[in-house]
Amino acid sequence: MKPTDSHIHDDDAPDAQRISSKRLMGKVAVITGGARGIGATTAQVFAENGANVVIADLLDELGVSLADSIGGRYIHCDVTKEADVEAAVQLALAWKGQLDIIFNNAGIAGPGGSITKIDMDQVKHIVSVNVNGILHGIKHAARAMMEGRKGGSIICTSSSAAIMGGLGGHAYSLSKEAILGLMKSTACELGMHGIRVNCISPHGVPSEMLVDAYRKFLGKKDMSAKEVGKIVGERGSLLQGRCGSTEDVAQAALFLASDDSGFITGHNLVIDGGYTSASTTMSFIYQ
């Protein structure tokens, strides 16, 4: 019996079929904060799906190594400096002549502590990275996409802390909720140019940034990513025992970057195992 397409494994499929399954074939993407964590995993996933990826980060050694491994490009980029972000976009244009996707992912966790003792200089810094950095990315990506007249996908990293209190420090929560408002307003303007603007809000993903934050807040300098994931899986997810991963977020970014989400804009895709939608403390009533 002749096998159907559903029975053909990727290794056995003809080249044309493998190519057609790559959801970003020929597209050009810029990823800020792309040298490690969520950004690095997303860079790998985008490249595996046919994208040409520019990694923009401050971590030069990691960024160069990753870019070389995926056939991409790397540029040193401080997202608080508008000229740096513009240069990352211009690198994509000089390299491939177009920009189809930007993943505004660079961000920092910021301080915890009481609102009564908050340091306004620290607040200004976290806003300059988490909000202004994304504003710079949207601005210059939109210009390039509008000139290219092919539309595009702009994706911004927010957080579950933007939609539920108690999940981050005050300055961090402020910055991440501001991103949601910026996403919605720019989606309104850029939609007429066929440019989609969306957010991804991860929750409890034990990336380097979250692990560092847990170590600081809990006072455990040797805390591992596995330990952080265990805490999130037990206390911060409806999917008991499971925390999110950088791969989970990367796959969400792939969906929003691809034509599969062609009618989705102004949306916040929350990757949280259902935590911000319901309370786990009352789950005993269903037993």
UniProtKB/TrEMBL annotation:
Protein biosynthesis among keywords: no
Q: Which InterPro entries match?
A: NAD(P)-bd_dom_sf (IPR036291), SDR_fam (IPR002347)
Q: Which domain of life is it from?
A: Eukaryota
Query: Sorted alphabetically, which keywords does the UniProt record give?
Result: Oxidoreductase
Give the UniProt family note.
Answer: Belongs to the short-chain dehydrogenases/reductases (SDR) family.
Q: What name has this protein been given in UniProt?
A: (21S)-21-acetoxyl-apo-melianone synthase SDR
Q: Which Pfam families does the protein's record reference?
A: adh_short_C2 (PF13561)
Q: Which reaction does it catalyse?
A: 21-O-acetyl-isomeliandiol + A = (21S)-21-acetoxyl-apo-melianone + AH2
Q: Does the keyword Metal-binding apply?
A: no
Entry's Gene Ontology molecular function annotations: oxidoreductase activity
